[in-house]
Structures are given as C-alpha cells and as structure tokens.
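(Fold this chain)
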Amino acid sequence: MKARHWGHVVFYVKDLERSLELYRDLVGFKEVGRTLGGKAAGLTAGRTHHE
C-alpha cells in the first residue's frame, strides 16, 4: 500500500514556539488553533483540519 497523504499526526515537543517556527513559518502549515492554555497548537496543510 502506498501512502498518498498524511491524515493526523501528533508531535510532543519541548518548545512549542520554536517548533511552530519550523512547521508554520518554514514548512507552510497554517495554525488553526491553540488549546491546553496555549501549550498545544493545531496546524493544517490545507485539505482538512487533520492534514
């Protein structure tokens, strides 16, 4: 079976802001929300809220 796209991925990181610099600012994911008092962020690659 060949994967066509990612669905849902969870990363646990020590420094959320630094990680967002990579995934949001460099890779191009869009931040769609924060939770857990700002300790977690949701990102999307565009197709659905899980990508």
Remarks:
- Strands lie at 30-35, 40-44.
